[in-house]
Each structure stands twice: as C-alpha cells, then as structure tokens.
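Quick one - inputs below.
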Amino acid sequence: EFCDVISKDNMGGGSSIFTKQELDDYQELTYFTKKEIHHVYKRFKSLAPNPEAVTKATKLSRDELYALPEIKVNPFKDRIVRVFSSSGDDSMTFEDFLDMMSVFCDHAPLAIKIEYAFRIYDFDEDDSLGREDLRKLIDRLTGEMKLGESDMEQLIQAVIEESDLDNDDGLSFAEFEHKMTKNPEFVTSFRIRM
Amino acid sequence: MEFNEQSNLLRNGGDRPTTSYGGRAQTYRDTEEYSYDNSSFAVDYEGLSSSDLVESSRSRSKSIVGERESASDILYRLRYSFLDPDLDSEHVISETQDCLTGQDKLRFKEDILEGIREVCLPMKQKLRIRRIITTDRVNRRRDQNSKKYINSKSRKNGSGFLHLWESSITKLTAYFGSTVASYFTFLRTLFFLNLVTGIILFSFIGVPQITTGAFLLDLDDKGNTFGHFGDLSYSMLFYGIYQDAVDGFSLPLSYFLTWIAVNLLTVLYLASSMYLRYRRSKLSDTGSDFPFTWSMFCYFDFTINTKAGVKDHLKAFCTDLKEKIREEKSLEVVAWLKKLQIYFLRLVSNVIVLGLLGGSGYLIYYVAQQEADERDVDFNDNFKELAKEIYERYRLAAVVAILKLVVPSIFKLLVKMESYQPRTELKFTLARTTFFHYASLIVFITSLTKKADCIDGQEPQITSTPSSVPSNHSTNNSTSCATNQCWENIVGEEIFKLILVDLGVCIAVGILFDVLIAVFVRTRTCCCKMDYSEFVVTSNVLDLVYGQGLVWLGLYFSPLMALVAVVKLFIVFYFRYFVARFANIPPKKMFRASRSGSFYLFLLLITWILCFIPVVYILIEKTPSVDCGPFAKKDRAYKVIDFLDSLDDLPSWLSWVKDALDYIATAIVIIPVIVVLILLVLYYRVKSSSYNALIQELRRQLVFERKIERKKVFAKALSAPALGSLGKTTGSAVTGEMSRKTSAVTFTA
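Output:
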C-alpha cells in the first residue's frame, strides 16, 4: 500500500515514482530535463486504459499508442511505433516511450535524428532505402491524391540519381546521412513537441 | 595467411541478406582495426548467416593479442549491435573494464558514459550498461560536471517568460506547420527585442525626466503650437520635452549615449544570432542541390498533428512535387521567337517596376513638402472641417501606407507576366518588395528632415530669445530659421502617425480580405468557387520588418517608441492568431528559406543598417532645434559629449589629435578605405565560390571512383585463378563488396 500511495503522488516529492538514481540515469540518457521526464510520464499514463494502475513496467499496446495526439494522424505512425518498440511487437514500455520522445525533441542532435529517420523510412528493414521503400514512402506522403505511375517512376529515378553514389539502386545509410546533414530544414521538420 | 578461414559478408546485387540491417555488417567490418588485405581472398557467401560472421569476427577480435578495445570501439560495436543479437554488450564492457586500471579505467568509464546517449539502442540496454559502468568514484566526478550541464539545460527550458505565447503557437503549428509558426516566433523575438530596448531607454532617459516633475512641455512663452496630437505631443513620448539640465545628472549625455548603446546592442544581438544560425546550417542555402531527395525526406512536417492540417500539408506536398516534376520536364529548348517575346516582356515589366519606384518616391517627397496649415482642432466645427483637418494631418502617413499596400500587389501581378520558374518568381517579388519598402522609408525620412533645414539658407541662431520671436512669426509659416519649432518633434510625430496608420491598414486589410472571404466561404453566399485565403508568410514577415524599421528610425526622435512597438506587436500577434485560426489555410507554396528563420534575421539586419545610417547623418549634419529638447544649446547633437565638443579648443600640444581626426574624415582617407573593403568582400566571395566548385568536383570524383573501382575489381575477379571456394563467387558479388567497403570508408571519414 505504501508503494501505491507513493506512485499516486506524481509531482509531489519530485522523484516519487522514480528513484533518484533512475531519474539521473534518464536525464543522462535522454535529452530531457527532470521536469520534462515527469511530463512525458504523465502523457504516457494518460494513454493507458487504466491510468491509476500504470507502473514503469506497463506496456502499452499498439492501438493505445496510436491514440497519442501527436502521432495520431501521422502517416508514419506504424513505422515510428515499430522502430521504437524494443520488443519488436509494436508495444512500448515507458522507457521506449521516453526514448521516442527524446529523439523527437528539440534538443536531440542531428545525428541521432538521422539514424532513426532512416530506420523509420526503411519499410522493409533491409538497411537500405530501395525502390520499394521509396515507392511506399511516396504513397504515404501523397495521401489521397495519388501520383501517376510515370510521375512516380520519374520521381524515384530522380531521387536515385541525385543521391545514390555507389549505384546499388538504393540509398544506404551513409548516402542518406550525407544528404540530410546538408539540409537545415530536416531538424525543424523531424520533431514532435510534447 | 591466418585470415583465410575468416568469413566475409559479400553482397549480391539482387539478394537481400537474411537478417534485418544486414547491409551494415560490411560497414562495421571495414574499420581500421579490422583492416585486412582483401584482394587475396574471396569467400563463399551463399551459405552464410550473419551469426557465422559475427562469431568469426568475435573470435578474430580475440585473437588480436593484447589489443584491448577502447571505449570508442565498443561504442562503435554497440551501434551495430542490432546485427548481432548475441552480442553480450555488458559482458564485453565489464571485461574490458576489468582489464583496465586506475586512470585508464576512469577515462574509459567516462568515455562510455558520455557516448552512450548517442547510440541508438533501446533504453533498457543503455540503462544496463550504465549500471555496469557507474561506480561511486566516477559518479562523484561526473556529478560535478553534470550539475553544470543540468543547470544550463534547465535554465534553457525552465524560464517560462521567454516562452510567452508558446501554447498558442503550438496550437497553430498543429494545423499550419513550422513555416507559419516561424512567423509567430519571429514576432515574439521582435517583441522581446523592443521590450528590452524600451526598458533601457525608459530607465535611463524617462526616469530622470520624471524626477524633474515636468510631464508636459511648457509652451507659455512660445504661443505657437506645433503638435498634432494635442497633449500627447508634448509628453514624454516625443523628443521635445526632455530638458537639458537635470540636477546632478546630465540628461543630454544620457539621451545620446543610451540611444547609441541600444543600437549597438541590437546589432550585436542580430549579428550573433545570425552567426550562430549560419554556422548550424553549414552553408547549405543552395536549395537547388538535391530538390527531390530533400522534398521526399525533409518536407513532411512532423509537428503537424491535426487531421485537416496533415491533409492540407500533403496536398501542398503533392502540388509541390508535381511542380518540380514539370520543371524538370520543361527544361526544353524554347523557340527563338518565344524567347524574344519573353525577354521583351521582362524588359517592359522591369521598366514599369522602376517607374513605380520612382513615382512613389516622388509622391512621398511631394506630399511631405506640403506644409500643413497649422490650425487648432476645434471640435465645435462641423464635420467637414474636421475631416479636412484629419486629412491634412494624416496625409503623409496615409500616402505611404496606401503605396505600401498597392505597389507590392502590382509587383506580384507583373512578375506573372515574366514567365519565370515559380521559385525565381518568388525571389524576384521578394527582392522588389523589400527594395520598395526600404526606398519608401528612406525617402520618407529624408523629406521629413528637410523641414529641419533653413529654407532661406540662414544658419539657425543658437542663442534664441523666444520672447522677441513670436510676435513676428505667429501667423505665417516658417520663413526664418528661428521659427523651426522643434523639428525633431515633428519628425517623431510623423513616424508615430505612420506606425498607427500602418497598424490600422493591417487590421483593415485583414478583416476585409481574410475574414470576409472566410464568412463568404462558410455561408456559401458567393456562387463562385472560393477558398479561404492563405496565410502568406513572406508578406507578413516583410510587414513586421518594415514596422521594426520604422521603430528604429523613430527611436532617436521619440525614446518611448519602443514601448509603443511592444503594444503594437501585442495587438498584431493576437489579431493574426485569431485570423489564422478562423479564416486562413496553410500556404500552398512554401518559401524554402522561411523555416529556418535566419533569413528573417538577415532582413532585420539589413533594415537596421538602412535605418541607422540616415539618423546618424541627421545627427551629424543637422542642428538640433533651439527651443526644445536636450540638445537645445548645442551646435550639433554629438557635441554633448564633452570630448568631441572641446575639440575646438584643445591645448596646442594636443592639436595634432584634432588635425588627425579632421584628416580622417576627409575623402582622401575614406575612399581608399571603402575601396579596400569592397576588395575584401570580393575576395571572400571568390573564395567561397571556388570552395563550391571544389565540392562539386569532389563529388564527381567520388562517383567516378566508384565506377572505376568496380570495373577494376570485376576484371581482377574474372582473371584471377580459382582459390578454393572462389569458384562460387561471381564478379558482381566481389564488386558489391568492394563498393560497400570503399563507400563506407569514404563516407565515414
């Protein structure tokens, strides 16, 4: 019962859900401050069907995660959840959730964002953005208005020509990183604010 | 050779490896630590699984005797640990940790701890690794370092005041995206800039004035009223009231120096934030480098999280993409006759633009030179008289504001006639509109300050005897210098009028266009297919910059102008916010540079320069008015600094200082200085363009080298005798391996 009482008091003593060691660790391992970590935990709790019973070990299922307002209408939400789910089955614990929000926050450096962006856009998970990946990406991005087949082909061809330097018909991580570091818009687009 | 039995992952062109992210195994393999001569062997890859490879590499790494893995090696391996599900990272780390002692151990721990955050591992694993590493000793040392780091971070995040309006901006971002949000953050920056400026000016100039108790200018002995705002004209808002002597505090000196200090602060802030942003962007303003790749991967804005917002965003993306594809296709050879026609049209439109610029400049000058009849506003007069009065007073401001409204729209229409690419079209319109704004500001201020000149060429008398003057000059307009009453006040008032009229026009246009169209669309009264008006970011930003330029112009003539600007920005923010929420849709075409925000700072910097120079010129050349203001007794405003004043009568042994200063100000020195500066600018431009050319050349070499390497290896593989298991390899597999290796080595450099 004592533990229940403590876990209900979320902002009271500062580190009542987390021990001081855990909070320090989280702060060191993510790009958040302590206050922000608490805020993220509150949001995590709000997604659960039974917020009172949420502990650090609770796993949120995929559908519960999709209800998060920040990613609810994102065309890539399934990829995001898959990439950050450490067990690979689209369910996330609080630590996975914290990891995800940390990567998307404003303070995360470019390198880590590029790394995760590459994983998110790599639909078939073969470590390369091949033609099929690009095709799926364009489909997600154009939404309801589909591009014509010839336009799609031309677009894929143009991207491959621009960025594929070793002629293996796809973008490797090095090539992707090479292009994305040059674009200042990437950081402003690839973030989610809590 | 001992590495013969080692296996190697080779990639076939069409064959995807069995595990996820398998391709990076090759990259992982080819670090300097594990370099080996791979031309001497080739391997059967078909039957391999990744665990074999990892096993072999691990055993190989153990066979490297005495070679302990450093922290960076381990971090590197951790980055690719998704390849290797059996990699027991904790085991490896604790082993390595045990091998080290003392200072090395401490450094190892610190390196790992610092680097672990950047590695893409699930949080659980990172926590486990941290638990292994941290001991009390390391903690104590790191706590000291991390406390500083945490404090700086929390300071950055915790100050809620700097995040004023943050929730409103987030709500807007959810629908409109980052571009529109950048306009509002820019507005907020301007708000704080003006607030700080206003507070400094008020505390150094306003507070001493308040202590004297004089809130209104005392004009009993003058008899002539010059103000257009009634009591407000003589208040602390304008220059005229500030006295030239306050007990124990030299108000003129403070006035002058505070103004200079505020300007310096502004330019320092602008230059430093531009510098920081520019460094971060790594010289990548060349938007045409990789248009397709960038629009595929960087366009989609993750900050939008409403359904309607995403829909509009994706629609804009689609149109943008289709446009880009059309652009590609349309780079065909245009017929000779059509080219001629296009060039002729461009010439015509440029002539029209120049004509418009010249015409509006002359119009502003003409209206400013009209002397308004100085009459009192008597509210007993009938309405017509009142209207005429208002017209005459606000004539100049109205002309400038209406021109500002009309001419950029004409520019937008004109540029359509010129058949440019859409992006060039936008740039041209932007450049012309900016130039027009600056030109109108400069003409405005110079024509106003002509009022400060003596019309009949006399030098104004410094010692004025006010009692003798009014009897001669109470009724006619200024024909003699002594009656140039408080020209600084007049200039200040005109600028203030312009700011008010500008605000009024902005609100009126917003209501008339955006809100009314929204009402029509919602109630479907108009039968034609109308859509909501877009939130055009560029023209709104230009408006903000123009307004800020006005404030900077007026800061000398009216110290509290900054606080007026604060109130104005507050009103503008909420007005735009509500119009955007209820009557606007996201812009269909996006101006690329607008997301990063450094472009706005650049505009602001240019505006600052263009507004500082005229005021400095006025300070140096014009005599302050004799009957009001802190510099009333001086010949020139800057002479309030005693050093500069006493230059006239220095002791003879210091007279060379005066001679030197006089000499410096002549053309003989200034022109060569300007020439040298221009040459420097040219030199740096040439340097940067040659760097660009170098980058292009290197890129070409990179691609070329790839092709040549492949051909070489292909030839070698075909000609080499079979080495045992080589029989199963094909040329393309070897080529694939080579290309991956060279690409990895070159890219990770």
